[in-house]
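Much of what follows relies on a compact textual record of a protein's fold. With that in mind, consider the following protein and its fold in C-alpha cell form.
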Amino acid sequence: MTQVIVVHGYTASPEENWYPWIQQKAKEEGVSLKVLRLDPSTKPRLETWQQQMQQQIEGLDENSIVIAHSLGTVAALHYLSEKLQQQKIKQLVLVAGFNGRLGRLEEVYPFIDAARIDFDLLKQQIEERVVIYSEGDDRVAPKFSLEQAKSLDAKVIQAEHFGHFIDSQGCTELPEVWQVIEPYLIRES
C-alpha cells in the first residue's frame, strides 16, 4: 500500500491551504495520507522539524510518496538525504520549492543554511521527482523552483493556480498534485 506524506510550509498547519482538500481526497480514494504537523514558528529550526518528521513518519519504503510545499521542500530534501541512504521511494513532489536563500524572509536563513541535501543520492533513490510551480508566485519566484527541478532532474509542471499555493491567495485545492501521484497509488483493499 502507498503511504503519502505531506510536509507543509512555513508557519502553516495541516488545517490550512490545500492540505485539508488533499486529506479528504485521499480518504475518499482509500489512500493512506498524512500531513505532518511541524513547528509553525516564524523562526523555525531545521533540527526541530527533523525531530518532528522523525516522530511522525513511520518509515519509508519503495511505495512511499513524499509531497512538500515551500520551506517544507528544504526540510523534506534534507530528511530524505539522510533517510534514503539504503532505501528507495516511489515519488517526490515539490510544490513552490527552492534550494537556497530567496533574498527575503531572513528569519528562515538559519533553517535553509543548516540543510544538507545530497541531490545525486536523491536522483538515484527516488523513482520519480516532480516540481510544481506557479508563474505568479510572489514568495518563491519561478526561477527558484526551476533551479530545484534542474538539481533533481525533475519533471516540471506549471500549475494553473497563480500564487504561492496558500489559502490566503485562494488556493484550497491543488489538482496538479493529485494528478501526479495518482498513477503511483496502491490503495487499501
Observations:
- The chain has a mean pLDDT of 96.
- Residues 137 and 154 are 19 Å apart (CA to CA).
- The helical segments are 19-29, 46-56, 71-83, 109-114, 119-125, 142-152, 175-181.
- The first helix runs from residue 19 to 29.
